Amino acid sequence: MYINTKKWELCKQCIKGICCVCVYTLISLSFGGAIGLMFLMLGCALPVYDKYWPLFLLFFYILSPIPYCISRRVVDDTDSASNACKELAIFLTTGIVISAFGLPIIFARAEVIAWGACALVLTGNVVIFGTILGFFLVFGSNDDFSWQQW
After folding, report:
1. Residue 101 phi, psi (nearest 5)
2. Which residues neighbour 49 within 8 Å (Cβ) at sequence distance 6 or greater?
3. DSSP-assigned letter for residue 113
4. Domain spans of the chain?
5. What is the pLDDT of residues 49-84, one digit of tens each?
6. Residue 14 phi, psi (nearest 5)
7. Residue among 2, 40, 64, 27 nearest 127 (CA)
8. How far apart are CA 59 and CA 45, in angstroms?
9. What is the pTM of this model?
């Protein structure tokens, strides 16, 4: 079996046994979240737009992972069949995400915010929800690399 010695030497320098890949993944996910929030703030705070109604989307960003996290704690994953609790959590999460994309469009149609602000907010939505999805894809499994150990 071939072992890349340069990567192994970098991983030897990790602090307190934390995997380098884990740290790099967390850094990239936090960068993605910061970029998404930057787009949201630009859609609110630019002098051309100057309306802060899109900040209500922060509630959707906070609420979106909660149903899935609750179902992960309640459901036993040993069953290979679909589970009603997990399906309900995915349904609720989908509803929250679609509402987060619909709210800026409704604001723009009602002329509460400008269409340019709507475009910036929708871009921020794509980046932030992609970051949340990336977090659960990388840290969602039940192995040594899981977020549940924190």
Report:
1. -80, -30
2. 43, 113, 114, 116, 117, 120
3. S
4. 19-149
5. 989 999 999 999 999 999 988 888 887 666 666 788
6. -65, 145
7. 40
8. 18
9. 0.78
